[in-house]
Amino acid sequence: RRAAAAPPRFRPLVSAEAMVNTDGEGADAGGGDPMCVDESAGPVVVGADQCEGARLQDSGAAVGIEETREGQVPVSHPGGGMRVRGATVEEAENEEAPTVQGSKEGAEELLLKVVYSEEEAYKLYCDYGHRTGFSVRKGKQSYFTGTKRIRTKDYFCSKEGLKEAEKLTDENFNDPHTRTNCRAMVRFRANSQGEWRVIRLVSDHNHNLVRPEERHLLRSAKSLIAGRSCSAADAVLYGGYQLGGVPSQMAASTSVTNNAETPWQDLLPGFSGITRTSAVGTGELQRIVSHLKSRANLDGMFYWDVQLDRAGRMSNFFWRDGRGRMDYDCFGDVVVFDSTYRLNKQNYIVAPFVGVNHHWQTTMYGCALLADDSMSSFTWLFKSFLEAMGNRQPRSIFTNQDQVMSNAIEEVLPNTCHRIAHWHIQKNAASRLGALNASKAFNKMFTKCMQGCDTEAEFEGTWAAMLREFKLQDNKWLSKLYKLKQKWCGALNKCTFDGGVENEPQCDSLSNIFTCIVDKSTSLSTIVAAVDKLTEDWREKEFDEDVRCCQRPLSCIIKHSDILNHAAKVYTHRIYKLFETYFLDGCGATKFKALPCEDSDTYRFEMTMQGRGSRVCTVHLNMSTMQLTCSCSQFETMGLLCPHTLKALSIKNVGKIPEIYILKRWTRDAKQWVFNPKQYESSYQECMDDEAGYCNHAMRYAYDLVMKSEGQEELRRSLWEALEGGEKELEKYQNATQLLRLS
């Protein structure tokens, strides 16, 4: 049911202490005025809802005005509080039934349950929202008079209120980001004993509710999970816990215990090559370890590791959570590792491992704290990272320019293509080349050398011309950089997948990962918590894009183009927009010349992009196998067909993208069926034959299913039933086996 979204009417409150917005999430719901209540949601009753917080002076004490029943007279009581004839106000409140506007279906638990904190109240309404199909936003609250204890708290449907200057249309009304002035809400009230109960519920919505199979994408489901982990982290981080305890058995983690008889060197193999005389105190290191152990207890797939120096002090840390492992399984073909963030106070390096997901957004795989940039530290770190990721090496790793690190990568990741990130080269150029950085002509040639040349010969010619024109033949930094050209020149890496991490704006975002959270005087334990928070923020953005892909259909710029409609169905929104740009460039701005081939099934074209000079790209298309090759090698590096190949498909009237050229990591289904080895016969057989492989696959598969069912009662119930059914089958098989042995 959808009602007309009329602007709400407001009336000022009696008291200036009444309703205040504490978190900003509901600020625009009531016109942005914290001194107003929405009268359109129901009649204004003189009592707690209207006069909460108003003061009545009696016997020199401030007494809160409480809601009274019809025919009852409020009387001030010298013992404090307000009394209704025959009962105290608290007793009267406890006897009241909550006011319900709309259907009570599915709300029984919400209406009857008593909770004991604001967090529990929020979770209770979120659970109700997940079952019903809507997301939740926090609203305004009032306090007990003269205190900071919450008296009443409102929570709203996320589509409550209206956004300024946004017009409601049939197209955007059910968009998850559009406000529709929905009236659905709940109000909790706390009594003096700290019991929170629902006193008002508006259950009807004026918009479509989310389908059951999409409810795990609701924003408040994600926020609730993030909130729980952050609260636990804060409690451990600042609680001063001592070292000790045993990590989760499921987690492949390394822990430090307080057993005096067991030396740390035996528990933690691998030592830093130098003895640290760091300013980091024992208490600071204890907080880090306690935080990581707490995360391991909450997350069965959390992994963390510590390296000791020769004096037995903890020096280097690495950690990643279960979600980081899942993301690496899906998108770990490209890794960006940055070790340029150094804290002055402790002289520690904060080094994240990141990549790009199927929405072309930054995603966190893991993070490290390094006491130094020695060979032993980097070697230990890359080995720990590799172990944490199931010993699967990435195809490419992008780092800052560091010879020691490069040596460690060659030793630990021999099958990975090591690249020096362009953003790091440009940062160094700013300090090494002085006034030349202001020259547009130099910057144009320097950028072309990095990623604008098609062939090695073109690169060599451009580099030589740049040195000649700007008299840089004796520049030592450029000479050293030239010797490393294989690690940064695009023309020499045309067959290496990079996922577009060197393209704008992705390059800009990856080059400034920690600038928002790393203060050089920040403590290590605060950095660890800040990294976790940043990771949650990134995942929140991914979650928003997942919702957008599920709930908002794409409109193709050419509505009746078969290949664009096919791309819109398989790719995520952002990747589709890239594909659409390539398609338009290919079909609208590309000249072609057909050339003869010996094979009757193969066609060869020479393509020239308009406005790109005389550059010619050669495309081969085999119509029987649908195999495509292009001399520009964009598919090999980015995983998307280039304008030239799309032009060739258009010439031959091919209306679909060939399946072999749809890279799963860019699709909407990038995270589906990743952990089920049955989709690949070889993987399944390998998994069944190898005990360790079977255990590893089974745990990751189960973890993925648990994460997908989180926050949804129906899915949790289905998963439990499936597990119980599997357990019964196992018991049946074991009993039959035992009977055979006995006979």
From TrEMBL:
State whether keyword Metal-binding applies: yes
Which GO MF terms does the UniProt record name? zinc ion binding
Q: Which UniProt keywords apply?
A: Metal-binding, Zinc, Zinc-finger
Q: Domain of life, per the record?
A: Eukaryota
**Annotated source species:** Aegilops tauschii subsp. strangulata
Q: Which PROSITE patterns match?
A: ZF_SWIM
An example of a Pfam family matching this protein is MULE
Domain SWIM-type, chain residue ranges per copy: 617-653
Statement: the UniProt record of this protein carries the keyword Zinc-finger: yes
Name recorded for this polypeptide = SWIM-type domain-containing protein
Question: Which InterPro entries does the record associate with it?
Answer: FAR1_DNA_bnd_dom, MULE_transposase_dom, Znf_PMZ, Znf_SWIM
